[in-house]
């Protein structure tokens, strides 16, 4: 069974302030939890509706009913397992290779997908503005499908970070240079902006090269690409000749 106190704790972790207070976050689903168990993340407790994760010790695992899982799950259709992991201390950003910087990315699904894309393309570091969505939001964790364990993500004052960076800073804009025609370096910082407003003016002033994805449609009426979709295209181009 899940106690009332456990239910209260777990459901509270859907909010950032309680994740920060307890230094815990939620992960759901066999794939995500298995990836995190194989990483440096520390398991706090695991709740399962069937015999799963046999290597996890009994003192860290509780067998519960499907109805109890529904009470603690963040999903509309709960899986068969939910785990609590400890939030680790942030690591420093190393200026080595390509760094992705996110300026006010607010949608959990977008951030989770971007983390997964960075993992796929071998980008090991993401710098988020302090007003971007929290990486330990359950929807972000779910969307990463475990990639959160392989990419270093840091929240900081993005203006200060970019102002002090020696790397070339690339920004994604509608009116930038055609990304398909540029010789892109292995090192640098790629900035992507807010879903509705793009890169802020303050950040734009720090960009050393503006890039864009050209529209090939006959009507040229599509206003913009989803930020995660754009990330996939830009990362593919940065990595194409490496």
Structural class: alpha/beta
The biggest beta sheet, please?
6 strands, parallel
Low-confidence stretches: none
Strand order of the largest sheet: 7-6-5-9-8-10
Q: What is the tally of beta strands?
A: 10
Radius of gyration (CA) equals 20 Å
Tally of alpha and pi helices: 9
Tell me the fraction of residues in β-strands, as a range.
15-25%
Q: Whole-Å distance between the termini?
A: 52 Å
Helix content: 25-40%
Mean pLDDT: 94
Shape: elongated
Give me the strand/helix succession.
HHEHEEHEEHEHEHEEHEH
Describe the protein in words:
- This protein is α/β, with parallel strands linked by helices and 242 residues long.
- The protein is built from 9 helices and 10 strands.
- The strands form 2 sheets. A 6-stranded parallel β-sheet has the order 7-6-5-9-8-10.
């Amino acid at each position: 069974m899940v106690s009332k106190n456990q239910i209260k704790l777990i459901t509270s972790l859907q909010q950032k302030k309680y994740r920060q207070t307890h230094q815990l976050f939620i992960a759901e689903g066999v794939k995500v939890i298995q990836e995190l168990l194989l990483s440096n993340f520390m398991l706090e407790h695991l709740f399962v509706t069937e015999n799963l994760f046999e290597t996890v010790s009994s003192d860290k695992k509780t067998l519960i009913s499907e109805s109890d899982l529904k009470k603690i799950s963040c999903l509309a259709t709960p899986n068969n397992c939910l785990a609590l992991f400890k939030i680790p201390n942030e690591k420093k950003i190393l200026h080595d290779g390509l760094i992705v910087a996110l300026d006010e990315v607010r949608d959990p699904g977008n951030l989770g997908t971007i983390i997964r894309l960075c993992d796929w393309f071998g980008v090991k570091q993401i710098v988020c503005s302090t007003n971007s969505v929290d990486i330990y939001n359950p929807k972000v964790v779910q969307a990463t499908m475990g990639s959160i364990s392989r990419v270093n993500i840091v929240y900081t004052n993005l203006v200060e970070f970019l102002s002090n960076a020696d790397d070339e800073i690339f920004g994604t804009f509608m009116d930038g240079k055609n990304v398909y025609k540029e010789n892109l370096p292995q090192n640098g910082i790629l900035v992507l902006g807010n879903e509705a407003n793009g890169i802020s003016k303050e950040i734009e002033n720090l960009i050393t090269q503006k890039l864009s994805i050209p529209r090939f449609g006959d009507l040229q009426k599509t206003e913009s690409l989803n930020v995660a979709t754009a990330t996939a295209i830009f990362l593919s181009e940065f990595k194409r000749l490496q």
